[in-house]
Amino acid sequence: MGHLNLPASKRNPRQWKLLDIISAVFFGLVLLFFLLVFTPLGDSMAASGRQALLLSTSDPRQRHRLVSLVELGHHHKPIEACPANSVDHMPCEDPRRNSQLSREMNLYRERHCPLPDEMPLCLIPPPPGYKIPVQWPESLHKIWHSNMPHNKIADRKGHQGWMKEQGPYFIFPGGGTMFPDGAAPYIEKLGQYIPMNGGTLRTALDMGCGVASFGGSLLSEGILTLSFAPRDSHKAQIQFALERGIPAFVLMLGTRRLPFPAFAFDLIHCSRCLIPFTAYNATYFVEVDRLLRPGGYLVISGPPVQWPKQDKEWADLQSVARALCYELIAVDGNTVIWKKPDGDSCLPNQNEFGLESCDESNDPSNAWYFKLRRCVTPTSSVNGEFPLGMIPRWPDRLIRAPSRAFVMKNGIDLFQADTRRWTRRVAYYKNTLNLKLGTPAVRNVMDMNAFFGGFAAALASDPVWVMNVVPARKPLTLGVIYDRGLIGVYHDWCEPFSTYPRTYDFIHVAGIESLIKLPGLSKSRCNLVDLMVEMDRMLRPEGTVVIRDSPEVIDKVARIAHAVRWTSTIHDKEPESHGRERILVATKMFWKLTSPSH
């Protein structure tokens, strides 16, 4: 029996509403289907759903269960990819998290890490269009735009020669705010007052570095510069520096000591870094003094040096330097150059900042989450001879055992044995394992457990730089690394590292399990799964990981490597080495984020 075709005015109002609702729901479902399948909304919603799934692993019990399955090799699928909006994620420098913190002394721009159970267990994807980076030394001057498509710096600073977009590349003319014509003429000017060549200067710190063109230009002078800047409004400046192959690190001078030992740097440079050196009773100048090697040079360009309307700030800066007996070498335009005294400063003296020497209970090389001190580090507080002029010039200082090696018992013997051991091991890596060390494929290298820097020293003739990481709970040997003309930082590997994703070509670690154990105990403070997920975050696609440890640990590492999408092989150690070590060599697969199938 058919429906009666009544005029609209004769239909039952209730029947009309019901038909309307059914029709609307049907057509709404059809429209939603087409939106999900054929538009970016589907990808966005899928990513949101994936994010919700990943965040669910922040339930501690569920997360611990997943970690256990991965460690045992019972989780047969790779760990999930993080959402597409996480391609540049740094867990400890998350603006959304840190913006809620105090602005006082830039606390909110320092490291603030979530607890492990609060972090989603997922793998950071590359951005769309990502390519294997331009190789060194070409990368110094150009990188792929698609690898970090952030135009903010190019738009704002292009007229100052920082960087420009050109076709598929960002190009780097070598300029900066205080040297728009390029770093080379600026460095040449500094060379009138400072021994910029000849090996006297080797380690430098560039504070508030922009895209690190100053540090990049110093490489040709044999000066190894560690450049740092916070994650701030100039989005990704450190990421650009690392993509170029220049040593760089995300860092903020705020409430804590910077993670370096005392007397580490032969040269410290600030070009419009805008650090208020005389604020808080000159606390920041005192921290710079802790880091500067006796006899080293401090260069400040830009405000407040002879800067309009900053007469008081400039006068205060000169007063602090005089209080610490710094020798004024030159004031050239808006650039001032000081030389730190070789011996102890002239404290105590009458000074308006109330500066005094630190007492003997203060270890000046203790710098991991250590609050800034408003006291000056005496040269005599660190045993040994390390002023410029008393230590060997580069490259002789690389292999000469520094007096700071006595931080360890029988330190000089340990240093020499460590140097021989790593010379032998690196030769085995290159000649037998056929690793790409020494080729253009490897530029940015990290040693996660550096000790005396022997691995990095064995690579000194290769076109690489090495970030030597000394675990904060192990003996504080980082001063030895700086004394031999290498660079590095303190870090605790139960936390994420302060770098962007995809910044290292080669990551090396000897004794990976020791990084997560309590010293002298078998109990773990954190787990290998989280550590290897963090290594994956730092590693570039097609990058290499080399891990040395006992056979039992290497077997566990191999199971986790599969879960983080690395292809790996296990090798015997060098014939000359003692012990039970085995070596895992892994390559990170170049995978891309894909939309789930519908």
UniProtKB/TrEMBL annotation:
Pfam families associated with the record: Methyltransf_29
Compartment(s) of residence: Endomembrane system; Membrane
Entry EC no(s): 2.1.1.-
Q: What is its main location?
A: membrane
TM annotation in the entry? 21-41
Q: Which UniProt keywords apply?
A: Glycoprotein, Membrane, Methyltransferase, Signal-anchor, Transferase, Transmembrane, Transmembrane helix
In terms of superkingdom, the source organism counts as Eukaryota
The keyword Transmembrane is assigned to this record: yes
Presence of the UniProt keyword Ion transport in the record:
no
Membrane topology per the record? Single-pass membrane protein; Single-pass type II membrane protein
Top-level EC class, please? transferase
Q: Which SUPFAM superfamilies match?
A: S-adenosyl-L-methionine-dependent methyltransferases
Annotated family = Belongs to the methyltransferase superfamily.
Q: What is this protein called?
A: Methyltransferase
Q: Which species is this record about?
A: Hibiscus sabdariffa (roselle)
